[in-house]
Every structure is written in C-alpha cells, then in structure tokens.
Amino acid sequence: MSVSESHTYRPPSLPQISVGGFWRSRIAAVREHTAPVLYERAVAAGTLDQVDVDKPVPELRIPIGPSGDTQQMFWDSDIGKIIEAYAYLVSDKRDPAIEERVDYLVGLLKKLQQPDGYLNSWFTRMQPGKRWTNLRDCHEMYNAGHLLEGAVAYYQATGKREFLDIMERYLDHIADQFGTGEGQKRGYPGHEELELALMSLYRLTGDQKRLDLASYFINERGRLPHYFDQEAADRGEKVNKRPSANHEYSQSHKPVREQDKVVGHAVRAMYLYSGMADVAMETGDDSLRQALDKLWDDLTSKRLYLTGGMGPSKENEGFTADYDFPNESAYAETCASIGLVFWARRMLGFGPNTRYADVMEQALYNGVLSGMSLDGAKFFYENPLESRGDHRRWEWHQCPCCPPNLARLTASIGTYIYGQSENGIAVHLFCDSTGHFDIAGGKVTLTQETRYPWDGKVAIRVGVENVDRFTLSARIPGWSRNTTATLNGDKVELEMNVQDGYLTLDRQWKDGDILVLTIPLDTRVIWPHPEIRQNAGRIALARGPLLYCLASADNPFPLNRIRVRPDTSFVPEFRQDILDGVTVLKAPARLVATEGWGTTLYRESAPLLVDTTITAVPYFAWDNREAGEMLVWMPVDSQG
Amino acid sequence: MSVSESHTYRPPSLPQISVGGFWRSRIAAVREHTAPVLYERAVAAGTLDQVDVDKPVPELRIPIGPSGDTQQMFWDSDIGKIIEAYAYLVSDKRDPAIEERVDYLVGLLKKLQQPDGYLNSWFTRMQPGKRWTNLRDCHEMYNAGHLLEGAVAYYQATGKREFLDIMERYLDHIADQFGTGEGQKRGYPGHEELELALMSLYRLTGDQKRLDLASYFINERGRLPHYFDQEAADRGEKVNKRPSANHEYSQSHKPVREQDKVVGHAVRAMYLYSGMADVAMETGDDSLRQALDKLWDDLTSKRLYLTGGMGPSKENEGFTADYDFPNESAYAETCASIGLVFWARRMLGFGPNTRYADVMEQALYNGVLSGMSLDGAKFFYENPLESRGDHRRWEWHQCPCCPPNLARLTASIGTYIYGQSENGIAVHLFCDSTGHFDIAGGKVTLTQETRYPWDGKVAIRVGVENVDRFTLSARIPGWSRNTTATLNGDKVELEMNVQDGYLTLDRQWKDGDILVLTIPLDTRVIWPHPEIRQNAGRIALARGPLLYCLASADNPFPLNRIRVRPDTSFVPEFRQDILDGVTVLKAPARLVATEGWGTTLYRESAPLLVDTTITAVPYFAWDNREAGEMLVWMPVDSQG
After folding, report:
1. Cα(B544)–Cα(A156) distance, rounded to whole angstroms?
2. Hey, of A293, A387, A601, which one would you mutate to test binding to chain B, going by the most B CBs within 10 A of its CB?
3. ipTM of the complex in this document
C-alpha cells in the first residue's frame, strides 16, 4: 500500500503476530482487568453521557481553567483509546462482548457527528459555537487523532468500516478548514497526535490527502506569525500564565526542522516526533530525519531517566534543564514513556539499529510497565525513582490518559517485536511469539522461544514457504557483553555479521533453520553522568533490559541508609513466590547504623556501618505489595 | 517590675547595651538600607492607604483566597514590625527623622481606632462587619500582637506613651470579647503572636490583666469543642482544603501541654512556644516548661536544618515527616529561624544553658542572617541549602513578613547577647559590646572585645561600682573543643566551673577584672543523621558558629561534581576582599570529570576523578555576588 518503495521497515499488522511468554501475562492482565476498568470508569466519569446525544447535556464535572479549557474537553480521546485497545484485544482473540461495546460507542459517535462532518462532544454539546477557536489548549485535533487511531485499529481487527467512514468524513472537514489555501486557517494541533494518526490511516489506505494533511501540520508548526498567538488575540486573551502560553510547551516555538532540543510537554513532544518520523519515512524527507536524529541525541544524552521515563517537572508535565533528574519528585508520566516507544519504533523504520531498539526496550520494561500494577487494575501517572511509600497506584485519575494508553500499547505489543521490509525481517524484541510474514513472494514464519527477560537464551526457528532469500536481522542489545549466536548449532561469527547492533544474516533460509542467541544477563552496576546532581555518589542496578530497585518489602530498613560498594557481586535468583515470579538480585551491603548515633541530628564523627544483605527487584514490579519505600539510585559505600 | 522573684534570666533592655563588631555592620546595613526599604515598600504596596482613614477606601490589591482571607489582612502587622524595628534603631541612636515617621504612623492608627477600642484596618475599612468571625485565617490577633510589640518598643526607646495607650485600649476591648466568662467568645489567635506580645507588655507594666489574657490564650488553645470548627460552622464554611483547616497547622490540634511534636506552620509554632515560655517563666508553671522541653527535643532531634532553619515544605510553610530535609526545595522561612531565636532566648530565661544558646546562635548566624543581603537591601523568604543559581534575594515580596522581622531582630541584637537575673549576668553571645547592668544594688559594666565569629578569643572586662558579688556566666559553645579561660591572666579550671555549658564564676569581682575565653575555631566536618535520606553520602563544613557552603563564584564547576574526603584538612583564610570580609575554608578535593565520559547519560564504569581545590564561604553570605550554584552538603569521595 505504501507509496514508498524504499527498504524501510514497517511494523507487521497485529493479526500477523501471536504473543506468548512474558508479554502474554501483561496482555492477560489488560484483558482481565484494564479493559473492563477503562469502560466502567468512562461510564462513571460521565464520558459516555457527554458523547451520547440522546442523553441530556450533562453538567460540567471537571472545572474550567483559566484558559477556558477543562479535562472534559479531551474525553473523546479516551473513547478513541478505549476503542483502539479493545480492537487490539479483539485482534488477539475475537470477543463478541468487546465488539458489542465498541459498536455501541461507534453508534454514539455516529449520532454525534454533525452534518458537516465535525465530531467533538465538547464543542457540540457543552460549548457549541466555539469550535476551532483555541487549538492551543482545547485538544480538538488531539481527540480527532485518537478517534482515528481507534477507527484504523478496529477496521484492521474486524473489517468493520463504519467508524473509519465516520472519521474519513471528519478528516475531510478538517482538511477543508485547515491548510495554506485561500480561506483556510493555518492552524495545527496544540497537542500533537493527529499527525501520527493520519499516517496510520495513510498506511492503511494510501490516500494521499491524509499524508498531505499530516505533512501540512508538521510543516506549518512554529511558523510566524504564530497561529496560537493570533488565535489568542482573536479570543481577546490577555496575559496567560499557563505553561501552554509558552510555545516551547507545544514544540511550536520554531519550525520543526530547526528544533534540536527536546522541550515542553513530554507527551506532546513524543507524539510530534512520532508523526515527524512517519512523514519522513513515507516521503523520504531527509531534513525531517536529520532533525529527529538531533532531537534523539538531545533526549538520550541529557533528559532520559534510567527508567526510560522523561519530563521531570509536574509544572509543565515536561522537560526542564539539562541533566535535571529529581528522583522522588520525578513526574515521568507513563504516557511520555509510551510516546517514546512510539517514536523509537518509528525510528526503527529507517532500518534496524539497536540505538533505537535499546531505548524502546528500556522504556517498555521499566517506565511503561511500572505504570500498571501486575494485575492490570491500578495505575501510575507519575513514575518516580524514589518513594517514601506514599506514592501508590490509583484506581482512576481525573486525567485518565495513561490507563488506555497502557492498554493499547500492551495489547499491540506483537507489532513492536518485529519489523518488516520488502525482503527483510527484523527481531527488535525478545519474547515467545510466532510471526507470519509475506515476503519476497512467499511466506516466512518466525517462532521465538525464550524466557527473556529472565534468561538471555533466544531460539528463533525459521519457517519458509516459496521464499528464495531474505535478510533476518536479530538485535544484539547494546547493553549486552559477549553475546554468542549459533545457526543450526554452528557458531556464527558476530564481528563479521553485526550491523548497527543487529546480527544481519542475508541468506537462503531453509525451513526449520534455528538461530540461537545467547545473551548473558549479567548484573550491571550503572553510574550516572557526572552532571546529574541528584545522583551524585549513587549507583543503580540493571540486569538485561530490567532496571532494578530496592523496596521495603525485601529490605526492612530505611533504604537511604544502605551503602553499596560498586564492585559488589550481585547474585540473581528467580523467585516464583513474589511479584508473579521475578528474578531478584542479592548482595552484601552495609547499613548506616542509628544505634550509638545519639539524639543529635548532626555530629562530627562518621556513623557506624554494619553488614547486611540487600535484595533488589525489577523496577516495574514495585508497589505491588504493601506500601513501602522504593529506591533506584543507591548511595555508594564511601567509608573504609 | 516583674511579679516573679525567682532566679530567672531576662534580657536587658536595649538602651543598656551598645553593640560593635560583627553585628554593628549588620545594624548599619539595617539602618542604611532595610529601614528605608520597609517604609517605601509599605507605601508602594498600599499598606499605608489601607490604614489611613483620610484616604478613600483602597481597591483590593491582593486577591482574596478560598477562605475569604488575603495577605492584605495582615498589613497592620507590617506597620507594627516597622515601628518596632524603627524603635530599636532609635534606641541605638536617636534619629528625629525616624521618630517623625513613627509618630506619623501612630497618628494614622489613632484615627483608625474605633470608639470601642477595636483597631484593624482590614475589618474597619475593607470588610466592615466581619470582625472576629475568622480567627483561624484572618490574623486579627496576630496584627494586634505586632502592633503591641511595636508600641512597647517605641515606649522603651522614647518614653512616648501614645501608641502604648492606643494598644492598651485595644487590649481592653480584646479581653472583653474573649475569655471564659459569660457572653465571651472562647477564641484565641489563629496565628500566634499576641501571647508573647502581651508578655512583653506585662514585663513592662506588671499589669496582671495582660498576663491573664496571655495565659487564657495559651490554656484555651486546642480545647474541645474546637473554637475554629465552631467558628467555621457559624460562617457556613463547608469543605476547606487549605492547610489551615487542619488544626495541626496552627498547633491547636490538642491542648498545648499535651503537645510533644513540633507540627504545622513553622512561624506559628515558634511564636506559640515563645509565648508559652514567657508565661511559664512569669507564672512558674512547670507543666508548660515540661511541654516546651519535649517540643525542643523534638525540633532539635528531628526537624532542624543545619542552618537553624526549619519547616521544609512550601505547602504548609511548615513541618513534615521526621528527618525530612530537602535541600534544594527547603522552605525554611527566614521568619521561622527568627522565631526560633525568640524561643531559644526565652528558654535561656530558665537559666543559662548552652543547649539553648547553641541553637540560638546557629539560627542567628546562618538561617536568619542568610535572609538578608550583606547591604540589607534584598531578602530571602526561603533559605534552601542547595541552589542551581535561580534562587536570588528579592527587593520585596507579596508577603513581606521577613524583612521587618530581620530588621527588628538585628536592631535589637544587643538584648540577645546578655541575660540578667537578680544577681547574675550571662554572656550568651560573643560580640564586641558594652553592657550596663544594675545588679545587687550596684552597677556592673561588661565590655567584650572579640573578632568573633572570625576569631575565637573573647576578652570580657568587668567594671563594678558598689557591687558585692555576682555570678558571671560565660558560654562555652557546645560545638567547641579545648576552650581555655584565664581570669586576669591566670588559668581558670573549666571542669570545676562549667555548669550547663557555661563557665560560671560566682565571686567578688574587682573593677578591671578581665576574663579571657579562647575558643578554638577548628573547621568541623559534619555528618548528617543516618535517617536524613537527602544527605546520604554527604558531609558539611562548619567553623565556630558558621555553617559553610560552596558557591560558584569560588568554585567554577558544577558543585555536585566535587568529592570531598571526610579527613580533609581545611585551611581557614580571612579574605578582606570578598563578601565584606569573611574567613574562607580551602582544601584539596576531587572533581568528577566529564572529559572522557562520552555522550551517554549512564555507563557501567566509574567516572574519572581529577584533583582540584575547593573554597567554602559562610552560608549566610551566599548570593551576594553574581548568580550561581550553592551547596551545603558535599558528596563524600567514595572512589579509591
């Protein structure tokens, strides 16, 4: 379907992949708990009442802020994300009850849609007459994007076109209103999202109009005179102290190709860069890709938490100064890490490169997964790296963006495991799974067997049918050391065959070939960049893709009293009895003694240190037991 | 004048003491810059317009909050504190221009006073009819207290009675309204202050009514049914999410004698405890003193910053959990440290004890002094222990409580240096000064000569006239080691003569006797309590009463990149050329190198350390040069 015939890699569609192993349990949690919670809470919040024109116009439930906006303005996006998540669950396993719910929601949206195609519950029912007057704050295009992603996913899962048709009509309306033509407004999304959604529609239908609109949004962003300023003046807005009044907040402070620093609201940034990557890939626009590479460097060299989280500040839900990594007050919104997974996956579209896959995996297994309890029923909005035990997952949130985002990403994880080009398949992530690919005129089946992330052995069985030759690229994680590989039992020389961190085998494959990667999962002691003031004198632990942390449940003392030597040997131990089964890391350490310290707060002699043992657990699994402290960055033992 | 004939120590009146040395320069800064700033800003803010009934009722300048309160409600307190500060400056040196200003302000207050004695600009002019309806939030009694302190000070400085008479009438009105009698309201101050002010009036006049009212306020506080709840119900107040709705905020969560934990708004707490100490001393009520000792232990063992600051949280301007000492976000309001000086001085009234004097000195030289620029023209509200260079002193503040508080404390510092009992004089602080005391039927003059806090030698010359014998108590600071003393050149055996940390000499003094203390000012490396998580792996520096810090101006690198060995020898050097002359501390240290680190944020090998030299300056003097980082707690060097 793509207009581009280059050797770019696209994710497979979800029905091509069946997922087992580690991620199967996450999908099961989403199916069992998250999916019903999403719907129930949308009903309880009043979201459905707002969308349903057969109901009386509901009362305002969430106050209107100083810019005339309210979180109720983006309830449509919740509907879109719920439908998208449900679509992926249906792809994974048909479920008439889920489909019935989606069809009901689609029916509500159909009745809500205006004769001119406009589709937005807030501006149709709550504030009629104000549509398209505040793109900066009011999330109209953001809502459209999430609804569109839902429509595309539901069509792919079921073949049902109705929602897609609704959205096509709405997009026609939007394309009519906005653009560089005469009489059109030169607006673009205040919260990016529609750009990437348009691109997923474009990949589905090949309709050039959708690519053109996405490209227009990308190209127009940040041009002067500034659209948001003009719009604010038209509204008669005077001083606005909201973060959004600063154009960095929405990455519209300059044209996107001139941007080289990751700024503003973190989720907005990730969604923009994802959309830019889609457009760059489908148009071959190298100037966009160059900007993205600079932004990637900036993010990963100055503002990415070790969790794959980002955006330390609650104030702007986003970025601050270089190397600013508060631990206890880290905002690091779950949705931002999810957005990074979206962006990284798209950067992998330019060809397998572990530079992107490492970060995608880092965010997935840490900052994303931590957003959800093991049972899928409770959620974090913020993902700090230290807690006194007062940061707990909640059942719902006034701004419930994260749970459906977690659900749609988890339920579609299969499409992140692999990438596919004209005659290549890339293995980006390791997970028990089977993938079916049409390639080079024939069919290829890849079957992964692995206990990853608990064990580093990955067996990939290749099935072929009418295929001449193709390239299989299997990722060697950037953090790994001494990975070995065998093909049908014979050692593969890695030095010769690794390209951008992927073992790349371009050969005639035989049905039943088995490629085995053995990735040693050594415990790694991690030092922070010298400029990270909050982590001075501290180290962290990782094993494979998993970041580790200390939790009170395993270490019954105030966690900042431990002292760890950097040369400590940590012993991994798989524990089936805790946290649904995780590998823990155990080691000797020392504890700063309070015994003998006295009653003063400060004194002139160093405290005594006593021997102890510490046990670290995967970061993503913290706060699934009783409330207690958590610590990622542990103080180094500095006393003789 | 006192009703109590016990051996308690009271501060001398200000005219008894003339101050030189270190504190003279601070008084000069207050006289030259702070004093005019106070008045100019009160004019600019509109404070005088609100008080002046000959002016039209002014517009609201500071918004009214959710409880119907506004900072404008406590503008009267600013007038009171300005008058008090001005009175101390007049005591120090008569100044007709200053007196003219005070007389003008007193004239405004006289015209403002209502026929029934009531005196409050807000409820007379801005919200007439609402007086005494919200003691919890509206600061009426707090205002009365500050006006009263101003009136007492101005009378002592000048003998002028007019303001005192105004306040006596107002107090009669308050005593009429509040109490346990029939028809009286059982209210008490929401923000404590009037209690201690009543006690200073009582000490001046001996009028039992004033002691009775102060005692009533202290005794009534926290009783059930809770007055603030009843009052809120009477106002029809429903849910109130302000911190003040929690009675811990105002230390009214239980009767004061049952309180053993320092909670709530920090300034409120310090003012309450000061008032309690005054009442305990003048009534001999041991149950109050026992409560105060528990509260003192709690404060100093769990919630006192090394600066003598307290109250880490901006949210409640006050206290949080045990051992919670954020550095960069420390609130540690200047006024809270000032309040601690008030409380500590009153605890010294029970007899010289370096347990209290050490803390008084710690707060004075660090958390209090840091609140004012060296020239007296700019001010901190918050006093963090770490800064990235964005925390700067301001010229004024919407809530300008700290500058006049700094001015009145600094200008009256003479009364903190000494304490006087029936036949004893205590030297609590070291500073060039002369004190005149009527004692044991005769006259004693003490003259201190010292370069303290830069040098630890203190010579105290004793002049006597018609005095038989008296006790001279000279403090040996708790942080000092190996202090020696000589009397007229002969060594004094300290072990025998030290009581509660004071060298106590009860003897027949001869005119011209010279007592010399030699207090070694060694640099001290300070370790934090093991439970202070924010300072894990960090140490601080002090010399004498001064806490030290690193500042960018002397250390041109990110301060958290330094690593210091605890056994480092720091060399003091007096530098006349910086910060109006301070002793700096120099030492070798190491710097975490960014060279060779690479572009990643995290890596598996420790960074390189390179040798460097660091220079620390007194904490109180930071941010008097160009903007830059500041750090108190330095990371310990943990690498071999």
Report:
1. 75
2. A601
3. 0.94
